[in-house]
Amino acid sequence: MPTPLTPGPLAGRLFSRGDAGYEAARRATMWNARRPDRFPDVIVQARDVHDVVAAVRLARARALRIGVRSGGHSWSANHVRDGGLLLDVSRLADVTIDAAARRATAGPGVAGHDLAGRLVRRGLFFPAGHCIGVKLGGYLLQGGFGWNSRALGPACHSVVGLDVVTADGDLVHASADDHADLYWAARGAGAGFFGVVVRYHLRLYPRPAAIGFGLLSYPLDRAEEVLRWAHAIGHDVPASVELQLLMSRRGALGRPSVDVFAPVFADGQRAAWRDLRLLRDAPPRPALRIPYTPAPLSLMYRAVMHHYPQEHRYAVDNMWTRASMDALWPGLRRIADTLPSAPSHALWLNWAPPPRRAGEMAFSMEDDYYLALYAVWRDAADDATHAAWPVERMRELAPLATGCQLADENLGQRPARFVSDDHLARLDAIRAVRDPDGRFHPWMGRPTPAPDAARPAAAEAAAVRP
Ligand SMILES: Cc1cc2nc3c(=O)[nH]c(=O)nc-3n(C[C@H](O)[C@H](O)[C@H](O)COP(=O)(O)OP(=O)(O)OC[C@H]3O[C@@H](n4cnc5c(N)ncnc54)[C@H](O)[C@@H]3O)c2cc1C
Known about the structure:
By secondary structure, the protein is of the alpha+beta class. It is 27% helix and 23% strand. Strand 5 and strand 6 (103-106) form a beta hairpin. Bound molecules: flavin-adenine dinucleotide (FAD).
């Protein structure tokens, strides 16, 4: 029987299982109302970096594995595991903005929409995620698909450094020049990162002169026509435009639809009209057509959140693909035919990334098209009918996938490739050096190789190459 934990410097912020306040603290870490029956031994609510160091050292001393939570928006509640220590760093939420240098620092508990709002007011921009509430902690580690990310790259591309508490309990600054292995790994490892990020250092951009969107809506029974059009224009969509197709039983006009939502971030109004010209060649006679309207980011956030209500139960799965529409259509049709009630939806995104410098960061999984399925429901009694939909449909399409996005990962239920094979090997090698005792939980569904098995070549493989 282990001796009970004495909180020491963490008094008042440490909850052991059975303590009053434990269950409230555990539930509060999860955004998805479908909360798993997994129970850490201890939960620590860090107030500052000293608490983070103390918590990691406590975990070391007591041989506890660590799960880290910033915003708790992991659909699978990846941070909540059985046993070990759950470290909640959501209170580390300081922001500094240096407009002249176009740099910001932000704690992991900063919400992307909050940062984006502050920046836009100062004529600046960062590719924060599309939804209200997602925190930078997990968002930047997994890649970060945000506003104008097709032009600016996944948001982790704009991380110029980070402050990390390592598995040893040391606070280090990682960048291209210092602890370059950690810097490489943190940009793309997602929920498999083996340290606690306590601050990000970010590159900022000028606010695009024109922000807005175009919107078309078609009856759902025209989905094939609309999807074939989107697929055919694949790489021709200007980088300033995010071409998203959303199939749902309650679309923009309140009925079963496929909506074409096209946010645009352009140098001026004229450029925005020009970049959205592609909507003119969309299938004719949509039920609704907005060729372009300028819109504040706050309005775009509200429009997106319509599909992601709070206090609902979610099941999510996804894939990257470059397959032909002929190959994809039977699976897509089955998705449309079996769509659960709204706000459940299927999202198609024309991503078509530009060539990136190989090896620059752990992030390495992206492709021409992104497909994600979101089952959304309120009542636990509907779990069986809704929860299986995304994973079953994705299993059917898996032979056409090149991998999955960690943003919407469902690795615990359906393992899939989330970085390139060589990057995964390098991540494992860096982990073996940085976290030889396996202090941090790895991705769900992918146990880390035993440290001893990974160690021999680890130091060599972990060395960061230019
Ligand atoms: C409603 C909604 C909308 C979303 N929209 C987008 C979107 O537009 N674009 C996009 O790219 N993604 C989006 N996501 C996915 C989201 O970015 C990821 O789930 C992300 O991991 C959430 O970060 P978080 O800090 O809020 O979540 P958390 O659940 O706290 O973190 C997820 C995982 O990241 C790791 N982690 C978190 N913080 C730290 C830290 N400080 N140090 C070390 N490890 C840490 C942990 O392993 C943790 O389990 C959305 C998710 C939801 C629920």
